[in-house]
Amino acid sequence: MTTWFRTYYEDEDLWLYLEADEEGWVVRHMEIGGKDGRPRTAASLQEVLHLRDHADLAAMTRYEQQYGILAGAPLDGWQDQPGAAEITAEEFERLWAQARRVRGGRG
């Protein structure tokens, strides 16, 4: 079952929004700054895998500069993180579309 959740890192004033698959692997990942609310990352596993299989290192580097780096490990214990809470798919999709527009993507 897909899970959508958020957690807050007070030291960095940063919200992390994650979509995880049934095995706990990150499928999409956003970081949103607290004070300005500006998306800092909006990375997708599907896009990363496509670039890995069909593009070169330069394309992957451009992607990471534009969208950030995707979390690369299963998410265990996220519920214990500060400010952690499940969110709805609709809330995640709304934030995702906004983050991708800001980062220069399609949505």
Round the Cα radius of gyration to an integer and report it.
Answer: 14 Å
Spans of at least 5 consecutive residues with low confidence = none
Percent strand equals 25-35%
The figure for the number of domains is 1
Number of E strands: 5
Oligomer: single chain
Q: How many helical stretches?
A: 3
What is the typical, i.e. mean, pLDDT? 88
Q: What's the arrangement of secondary structure elements?
A:
Layout: E1 3-9, E2 14-20, E3 26-33, E4 39-44, H1 45-54, H2 57-67, E5 85-86, H3 89-103
Detailed description of the structure:
The chain is built from 3 helices and 5 strands, in the order ββββααβα. The protein is α+β, with helices and mostly antiparallel strands. The protein has one domain (3-95). Strands 4-3-2-1-5 form a 5-stranded antiparallel beta sheet. A hairpin with a 4-residue loop joins β1 and β2. The relative contact order is 0.23.
What is shown here, in short?
Helix content is 34%, strand content 28%.
Descriptors for this entry?
alpha+beta; 3 helices; single chain; 5-stranded antiparallel sheet; 107 residues; 5 strands
